Amino acid sequence: MKNVWTKLRRSAVFGCALVGLVFLLATFSPFVRWYARTLRGSWADPRGDTLIVIGGSDLDGFPGPSTVLRCMYAVVAYRERGFRKIVVSGYLVGSHMRNLLIAEGVPAEVVVVEDNSRSTRENAVDVARFLAGEPGPKALMTSDYHMFRAARAFRKAGLNVEPWPIPDALKRIEDRTRTWSAFVDEATESAKIVYYAWHGWI
After folding, report:
1. Over the stretch 116-127, which tens digit does the pLDDT of each residue have?
2. Which range of residues forms the domain containing residue 71?
3. 26 within a domain of the structure (yes/no)
């Protein structure tokens, strides 16, 4: 019995040390910033006729912080580029995203909603089907840490898009108290990338 307790104590100490190491890595090293930039990738000031905006987090059906941030950047993009059409995509949050854009001055006739998709894979498939035969180049807007998977999922679904990542994780990293949340999002996204690659969705 004593040996069992000794092993359990050692395992607990090892687990706590590992958690502490990860916390230090996430909070004080440049890793989180580097990885956010890696997932963001490069882009060349995308322009197009259609802007696609993917919904992110939700709070009981209402837009969460990442969704609101994407919508605000979409408003700026419309003001600067005058997209002919903006497609907002996301189960439950799609209609709220449309309302946010309209409230900020985007004409109602410009914004269309796809609100059946519950995942990035479904975003890609449903929007690709929705825009089938639609002429002109298309830009895809989502959070920096999400862009690697999102852009590849859309292209895999047959819709060629130009990435337009917005600074989400990279903004949070500027505030050390929010770096951990960015790290968690990046870690979760890494697991999803592996899952999507395993299924051949990216």
Report:
1. 999 999 999 999
2. 37-199
3. no
